Amino acid sequence: MTTIIDGNEIADSIQTDVRASVETLTDAGVRPGLATVLMSEDGASETYVSMKQRACEELGIEGSHHEISPDASADALFDRIDELNADPSVHGILVQMPVPDHVEKRAVLERIDPVKDVDGFHPENVGRLVAGNARYKPCTPHGVQKILAAEGIETSGKDAVVVGRSDIVGKPMANLLIQYGEGGNATATVCHSRTEDLAEKTRQADLLVAAAGVPEMIDGDMIKEGATVVDVGINRVDADNEKGYELVGDVEFESAKERAGAITPVPGGVGPLTIAMLMYNTVEAASLQSD
Length: 291
Ligand code: GUN
Prior knowledge:
- Helix content is about 40%, strand content about 15%.
- It is α/β, with parallel strands linked by helices.
- The chain has a 6-stranded parallel beta sheet with strand order 1-11-8-7-5-6.
- The longest helix is centred in the first third of the chain and has 21 residues, at about 5-25.
- It is globular, with a radius of gyration of 19 Å.
- Guanine (GUN) binds near residues 139, 140 and 168.
- Pathway: One-carbon metabolism; tetrahydrofolate interconversion.
- Its EC number is 1.5.1.5, 3.5.4.9.
């Protein structure tokens, strides 16, 4: 029988712990604060940011949301980041990606105070992660590790294949999988758009993490019997319904679940964990900054 992993249930249990830590910190006079910044009118980005703010409310974290017009200058965004860096009530800063083309992404990431960089995208934090001394683990790959731990899925000695080489998921996921300790010690292969014979690689995977952002690109034929399949994709595809779209993953769920030993659905798989780990990192940030 294939296990369909319930990401909401795992995220709820993490959020229960986070809520308790928020209370402890707040009682000690440090209420964790998270600022989200959006410089986009993309519907999906707006939805993600509002979900992050809602999670703050539910957990007692002080959320603040900042919108910068996508037509504004890069300096308008940098000035706002500078203000948030200087604000002691803000412990975490998240600039929702992508930013418009006229704003250099790297400059944005480097502008955020690394101690407030709860995404873990600042080069200092990326360097620390690669060195095995992470300050904040990036939320989505960290969430994938939490899923594996909650389901009792061993990574040590296993062949893991990550499909996608993004800075947000693919690269940090592979890095975490090869590190020493729980959720690591795997043999990780990273595949991407130039990989020749992708299916030959994915069929070797005991653990397959799909994070390419291509709707349903992995089907059952590409999966080893009994493998754990973690689908990080959240793709909007046109649909004949009220919203005009539906969400599908990078994995074709129906055929994949016939082969997988365990699989995350979309929605309700990795997505809730990304938000839970952001809340977790915000509490870490508040705690670091209160020392
Ligand atoms: N865009 C898509 N995923 C993410 C994320 O985890 N953090 C930020 N800041 N932007 C994103």
